[in-house]
Amino acid sequence: MARKSNKDSKKKKRKVPKKKLCYFCTEHFVAIDYKDEDLLRRFMTERGKISPRRNTGTCALHQRLLAMAVKRGRHIVMLPFVREYFR
Ligand SMILES: [Zn+2]
Questions:
Q1: How far is the CA of 46 from the centre of ligand 1 (A)?
Q2: CA of residue 80 to ligand 1 center, whole Å
Q3: What is the mean pLDDT of the chain?
Q4: Is the pLDDT of residue 23 over 90?
Q5: Closest CA to 82 of 43, 46, 37, 34
Q6: Is the pLDDT higher at 84 or at 54?
């Protein structure tokens, strides 16, 4: 009982996404200024959440620094915790 190979039909075509470079690495950031509102807002969603690494391409180290900077920015009431009017 020889069965025909089904290998070819099962092959999935997956696009390999272009790898994004970390913005902070390319700009040689050592620390992220939490008072730099414009910069931090680029890495936040419209609702004021910190954008995930998979969307921005930030590396692990800089994502950690970024999260810290955003949280500090929120504490000094420069950045929003949430934006309600985007509902
Ligand atoms: Zn980086």
A1: 22
A2: 24
A3: 84
A4: yes
A5: 46
A6: 54
Can you read off the two tokens belonging to residue 16?
């390999």
pTM, two decimals, is 0.73
Gap between the Cα atoms of 69 and 47, Å rounded: 17
Give, in words, the CATH class of 20-86: few secondary structures
| 77, burial (CB in 10 Å: exposed 0-12, middle 13-18, buried 19+) | exposed
Average pLDDT over every residue of 17-45: 91
Q: Tell me, in angstroms, the distance from the centre of ligand 1 to residue 22's CA.
A: 5
d(CA 37, CA 28): 18
Q: Where are the domains of the chain?
A: 20-86
Q: What is the pLDDT of residue 36?
A: 92
